[in-house]
Amino acid sequence: MSEPHGTKEAAYDVIVLGAGPVGQNVADRARAAGLSVAVVERELVGGECSYWACVPSKALLRPVIAVADARRVDGARQAVTGPLDTEGVFARRDRYVTDWDDTGQAQGVKSIGADLFRGHGRLDGPRRVTVTRDDGSRQVLTARHAVAVATGSRPVLPDIPGIDEARPWTNRHGTDSSTVPARLAVVGGGGVGVEMATLWQGLGSRVTLLARRRLLPRMEPFVGDLVAQGLTGAGVDVRIGVQVRALRRPDPTGPVTLTLDDGGELEAEEVLFATGRTPATDDIGLDSVGLTPGSWLDVDTTCLVHGVDGDWLYALGDVNHRALLTHQGKYQARTAGDAIGARAAGRPLDDAAWGDHATTADQHAVPQVFFTDPEAGSVGLTADQAAAAGHRIRTVDLDFNAAQGANLYADGYRGHGRLVVDLDREVLLGVTFVGPGVSELLHSATVAVAGEVPLKRLRHAIACFPTVSEIWLFLLAAYQRDRDTPQTASA
Asked: Which annotated residues bind NAD(+) (predicted)?
């Protein structure tokens, strides 16, 4: 879709910087409020999620997990007689990323009635954006009501000797490559690291995973332990408490050598760094409105940026650093889009906790899933987080093999669940599941946490027999059984 022509300056009610899922959602909500919208994108419409993160990684991981699931079921495992067809797996990925062609998503922006401007958008003072196209020409846009920054984040590479020479992979190389390296070193034990290790080991690479501390450190401790066991069982060499001190790749077509802090060395055809992300705000003109370029943007409950006069600048998704998850950014975008519409119409804001214009879930009910083997999912607070926040809590833990539905799902099913219960109100503050297929359990947990469903009522939500969701019955029964048993409650 081509952008509007015929003028070097144009005014809109709302300007959105970034056309990923977050930018598209706030644009859609603003249009639904009757506001005119301009969307600015310098790369592909659809953003990181559509082409180098969530969509391609899950398209690639699903065949790996499907084969692993088949091997856990007697009668099906005998049918798995060879390795994955990597060409078929890569072709599947290419279909889901539409061969990195954003025509369809660009048409989607047009279909909601927004105008798309391709180029590098930069703030140029209050309510003003300058778009520089690839040919050097410029378009000036002004916003009557709001500018929404949804430019996302980019991977961080550590400042260690040899990093440039090594030409390391990031999540982008990890999801758009169509060549399986014989040996791959993955550095980082967070979500990207464990998913990339799962993926490439499943595709036939010999993967070594290096992590400074336990895997998935922001989740309950047992999560990282079970995921590490799963990776090791799949053949990944998992090394915890290890850091990379230097890299060498003297031959650009040869292997890379990693020097480790324990004095050892590791050689691999490729090295992938999954060591954190930084906001893509370094070159969007933040200094023109009194903010620091390259910084995370601090926002209020409606995603309005603090420190900018006039209530016009919003920051959504990764850039506000609340939860670097696509679904959470889209939630923020829907909420902020409604708030922009209300402010533009002069209507009062419903920005109290859980109100229509409040991103309350950012603090209390963020769901996240990692598609490893076993899968790991959680929502809300961990036990340590809840205790640190001053809650009196009780934790309820249970292995999934208690549920017959889990054992029918996979012979010898191995998994674990935890509830974090607020003892004063008897509602759930957090839920964590680890095991095959648990990603499909997480929304029920999210409803329970976000809805603050009393446990007395929740026990009447009957799980179908025989399904993995029966674990809910066993967890709630364990809490009810132990509620009157003396136990030191955390505080």
From this structure: 188-195, 276
9-46+102-154+279-361 in CATH: which number? 3.50.50.60
Contacts of 226 (CB under 8 A, 6+ apart): 374, 376, 414, 415, 416, 434, 435
Longest dimension (CA), the chain: 76
The burial of 180, by beta-carbon neighbours within 10 Å (0-12 exposed, 13-18 middle, 19 or more buried), is given as: middle
Residue stretches of the annotated binding site? 58, 121, 151-153, 188-195, 276, 318
* Residue-wise pLDDT tens digits, 170-227: 999 999 999 999 999 999 999 999 999 999 999 999 999 999 999 999 999 999 999 9
Beta bridge partners of 11: 142
C-alpha to C-alpha distance for 450 and 42, rounded to whole angstroms? 36
Q: Could you say which architecture CATH assigns to the domain 374-482?
A: 2-Layer Sandwich (3.30)
Annotated binding site for FAD: 58, 121, 151-153, 318
Q: Rounded to whole angstroms, what are the CA distances from 147 to 40, 126, 199, 305, 422?
A: 11, 9, 38, 10, 39
Q: Supply angle C-alpha 222, 228, 229, rounded to 5.
A: 90
CATH 3.30.390.30 in the chain: give the residue spans: 374-482
Domain with CATH 3.50.50.60 in the chain: 9-46+102-154+279-361, 163-275
Mean pLDDT of 396-401: 93
pLDDT at 231: 98
Q: Which of 205, 145, 137, 195 is nearest to 171 (CA)?
A: 195
> How many CA atoms lie within 13 Å of 471's alpha carbon, on the beta-carbon side?
32
Residue 282: CB atoms within 10 A of its CB come to: 13
Rounded Cα gap, residues 327 and 350, in angstroms = 22
Pick out the residues of the known binding site for NAD(+): 188-195, 276
Structure tokens at 202: 């499943």
The string of DSSP letters for 7-34 reads -SEEEEEEEEE--SHHHHHHHHHHHHTT
Helix (H), strand (E) at residue 476: helix 471-482
Name the superfamily (CATH) of residues 163-275. FAD/NAD(P)-binding domain (3.50.50.60)
- Whole-structure pTM value: 0.93
